[in-house]
Amino acid sequence: MIKDLFSQKQTLSFEVFPPKKDDEFTNAQNVLHQLSELQPDFISVTYGAGGSRSKRTVELASFIQNSLHIPAVAHMTCVGSSKEDILTVTDDMKQAGLSHVLALRGDRPTWMDDAQFENRAFAHASDLTRFLKEHTDLEVAGACYPEKHFEAESLDSDITYLKEKQEAGAAFFITQLFFENDSFYRFLEKKNHAGITLPVCAGIMPITSAKQLGTTVTLSGSSVPKELADIIAAYGENPEDMRKAGIDYAIRQILDLKQHGADGIHIYSMNKPKTTRTIVEAIR
Q1: Which tens digits make up the pLDDT trace of 217-276?
Q2: How does DSSP assign 190-250, residue by residue?
Q3: Catalytic pick from 15, 59, 147, 180?
Q4: Does the annotation mark 15 as catalytic?
Q5: pTM
Q6: Which of 14, 154, 202, 227, CA to CA, is 20 to 30 A from 250?
Q7: Which burial class, exposed, middle or buried, applies to 274 when counting CB atoms under 10 A from its CB (0-12, 13-18, 19+)?
């Protein structure tokens, strides 16, 4: 089990996303073959909006675990799912030999009206975590937010919800991406003070283009420190220089996290093995 690794080492893991089309699956496998050469401790696979690509998530996670022999964590969102929907996916996971899932609420689907949203089967990711622990043998990871979830009133209230995930049976946490390590260290102090004892993997996304940063901030709510904003201003118009500067920023972020004893580093690879390899070779 992945949770056992944290007592043995500082883990290194990657996130990938499944292909949107079936005919792109071979390319996704090629990406994973290249990532597997970096010997990560596990690889997580994202979930389509509202579970729209759950079968591809399971298929790709199965390839990681059964063909590449690397532990796989399949993401699972619940905001638009019934309990029956969730059990259908977990049955698929069981048949694929998967044993780890990242339990997420997920973003509200565009088709969901206010009444459907208010009466959804799982109000929070902690409810999904509890349900999975009661009805399956899956090991459940949870998400956490160093700068708080964008819907939370405060970081303190968000920490309270995080403790509910621990009490519901989560085994470890992976953070939303962040660009300022001091925010992560403040978050760790608060979660420790609240009695949250589970390991936390720090989620890092290398920003290799100015456009990517805008999209990332919109989706994640992460703040942009002045140093990174200055990099965008200086190199944003030059793609190759921007790529190098963004990778260098991520490397320096990770080296600092490692030096401060982070439980694990989780790289949002964006299915870019070349970028990921550059970072991994630098931090090792």
Answers
A1: 777 778 899 999 999 999 989 999 999 999 999 999 999 999 999 999 999 999 999 999
A2: HHHHTT--S-EEEEE----SHHHHHHHHHHH-----HHHHHHHHHHTT-HHHHHHHHHHHH
A3: 15
A4: yes
A5: 0.94
A6: 154
A7: exposed
